[in-house]
Amino acid sequence: MEQFLIEGGVRLEGEIPVSGAKNSALPAMAACLLTREAVLLHRIPQVRDICTMARLLEHIGAGVEFREDGTLRVEAHQVAVPEAPYELVKTMRASSLVLGPLLARAGRARVSLPGGCAIGARPINLHLEAMERLGARIRQEHGYIIAEAPEGLRGTLITFDRITVTGTEDVLMAAVLAEGETLLENAAREPEVADLAELLVKMGARIEGAGTSTIRVRGVSRLHGAEHTIIPDRIEAGTFLIAGAITAGDLLVTGCRPDHLTALVSKLIQAGAEITEAGPGALRVRRPGGLLAADVTTEEYPGFATDLQAQYMALATQAEGVSLITETIFENRFMHALELMRMGADIRIEGRRAIVTGPRELTGAAVIASDLRASASLVLAGLVARGETVVDRVYHIDRGYERIEEKLSRVGARIRRIAA
Ligand code: EPZ
User: Fold this and answer.
1) What ligand 1 atom has the least distance to the C-alpha of 330?
2) Pocket, ligand 1, Cβ cutoff 6 A
3) Going by DSSP bridges, is the β-strand pair 83-84/72-75 parallel, antiparallel, or unpaired?
4) pTM over 0.90
């Protein structure tokens, strides 16, 4: 198992590039199942979850080819095995994103139920209820969901009880080939949903309103091949902005979408960072003085992203005063707090709230990553801790960050990947 060895106390300086968004690339790859023609996806990040999705598409029967320039070619000429097996779903819950496309294209799907997760229960009941509304028959057998729509899906009104990102994406992919019109209400407004809709429209789908909470889909009888560039990863970009602020560095985060980062940027400014637009797709982060406590509540987009909560908590340990961090999306997303406390942070957890008192000097320690964003938080803490931090189980971070240690090293961080 690999670890990161981090020597803290270095200001990060220089330019750091942002990769394509993992959470946009995953549904885009699933969408390739909707057509027998080839789809070309550019700016695919080389991260482990993408490899898992590629294996899933191959299992289903698609041809998948990664090119050196970050382009992925998927050709699902036929859907031989309309199934997401347990082995793949248990390593990546987003595998359930193939449910909608398989139902739409093949009229049936067999998708393993995901099971437990480090950050909360994360059921997929809302995906299933919506598929039933579209006319699918759903039953559960041996840990699998069996969904069938032999006569095809029919458009309808779907109102989500709560906002779900992959649920919205899954249903969108089912609705594009359904007969008639689907109206999706209380849909997720995340940029990744809008990016998926853009790809689907290029493939011939008729969609209006993606990126708002009401999406209208008019079903078409077939989709065709297309070419699409994935949006920049706003969570990776946000992690780098926090890295610049926490190390009092001077970082130029390039190839990002500042308009996707407004909630984080205004919070970092409130906390004492200076962030300026530095040309198209570039944000410069500096820190003229100390950090100040600022409260954060996670929300659906355009609110403060739950996927940046752990990283923000690392920053809050260095801020003067008490920061109240409230997690509203997932019920168990504070595992990183316990590890930060082992490094010297003053954090009290009360249900969905973390009360962080700072600044506290962090000292390097051996810590264990529990999930993707928790690992990023520990890396950030390691960058400011005195002495050496060893982050274990870095396979979590490899799921969603493309060679993060190389990117951070190039801007001055002392971070190495070592074999445990
Ligand atoms: C997506 O997960 C992201 N994953 C997550 O990113 C992200 O944290 C999350 O959205 C919230 O922004 C991908 O895009 C691949 P949800 P998703 O359905 O779609 C409850 C990362 O680190 N819910 O929006 O699975 C659920 O339990 C990851 O990159 C139901 O109750 O999240 C949660 O409390 C982790 N029933 C809330 O809704 C359902 O059927 C929001 O979850 C579906 C969800």
Assistant:
1) 34
2) 23, 26, 94, 120-127, 162, 164-167, 192, 306-307, 329-330, 372-373, 400
3) unpaired
4) yes
